[in-house]
Amino acid sequence: MSKQDEVIVIGKFGASYGIRGWLKVVSFTDQPESIFDYKPWLIQVKGEWVEFSVESWKRHKGLVCKLEGLEVREEAQTYTNLEIAVKADVLPELSEDEFYWRELFGMEVVTTQGYGLGVVDDIFETGSNDVLVVKANLKDAFGKKERLIPFIDEQVIKLIDREAQRIEVDWDPGF
């Protein structure tokens, strides 16, 4: 799939709000309100991504929005829990040393000594730094099937090679 066709989930709908077709919005973006900066929204309806425009939005104990064409509560209720996505090409371009998390998933992780630790399976925030969840296919010589490696640039993360799909880390394989 080309970047032009790739779909990125940026949020989801919560329950309907009011009687005029409004929906609660759960944003997955860093700044919750910035979900409304991305256009058009794609919503999977009957297995197919369909474009929607946001007619209006506001803050009300979180975020709520009105999609163009949704006029009544009953119709809006059918969108509850559906994902909100955009095409990848609407995301801002990053500098060479910046990455979207999605780019790191599936990358091979090796130590600076060349020991293979596995592949990036997940990433999560801790408040102080992000953490890579690295999974090995089988238990390795140290009995590890999963490692949590802090994403600390330069100190732990030595190199990210997009072309080779490889992350080099300064990390003890026994840890």
Order the strands across the largest sheet as they lie in space.
4-3-7-1-2-6-5
Beta-strand proportion: 35-45%
Corresponding CATH superfamily of the largest domain: RimM
CATH architecture title of the largest domain: Beta Barrel
What is the percent of helical residues?
Answer: under 10%
> What are the secondary-structure elements, in order, as H or E?
EEEEEEHEHEEEEEE
Count of runs of 4 or more consecutive helical residues = 2
What is the CATH level 1 assignment of the largest domain? Mainly Beta
CATH level 3 topology of the largest domain: Elongation Factor Tu (Ef-tu), domain 3
Q: From the helix content, strand content and strand pairing, which structural class follows? A: mainly beta
Number of strands: 13
Tell me the distance between the termini.
36 Å
* Major sheet summary line: 7 strands, antiparallel
What average pLDDT do the residues reach? 91
Low-confidence stretches: none
- How many separate domains? 2
Inertia-based shape: elongated
Measured on Cα atoms, how large is the radius of gyration? 20 Å
Short key terms for the protein model shown above:
175 residues, mainly beta, Elongation Factor Tu (Ef-tu), domain 3, SH3 type barrels, 2 domains, 7-stranded antiparallel beta sheet, 6-stranded mixed beta sheet, 2 helices, 13 strands, elongated
